[in-house]
Amino acid sequence: MNTQKILSIFMIFAVLTGTMLALGCTEADNENDFVETEHDEETTIPLDEITNIEWQWSGLIETLPASHSVVPDPENYTITFSENGTYSIKADCNRGSGSYTLEDNKMTIAPGPITLAYCGPESLDSQYLSLLGNVTAVSMEDGKLVLETGENGDRMLFIKGEIVEQ
User: Fold this and answer.
1) Where do the DUF306 domain residues begin and end (predicted)?
2) Domain count of the chain?
3) Which of the 8 DSSP states describes residue 36?
């Protein structure tokens, strides 16, 4: 294994470890710190609306600083939720799985085993995995799956891919 691959694996592990530590240590001090938008309404998301579909990450809306970025190859960053509380992901050249919880519109995604291949300098795999580790809520908007991350109300946008047979 060359040094660049080892460093990449180390960086991915460091990001995942930091994300898990942050999840255990963060707490919103004030509900007014969240950006108020119409998608903040607490709405129960039926499992059958999100399960057994390969969702493709198509964009990211960040609030601080305000920006909207488009994912160049959505088919390389997918997540499929199963009805039994597990998920499988594709993060560019890596594959993984884990468990999730969904109550009303509140969601948490727990990391699980994942391959740690180096996908190249243009890959968004580290960002994708970090964002998934910070998911706090889920909603549906215009047929798109929206996963809210962190305390700022950043939003990951997903488009429908293939229907997955269980």
Assistant:
1) 70-158
2) 1
3) -
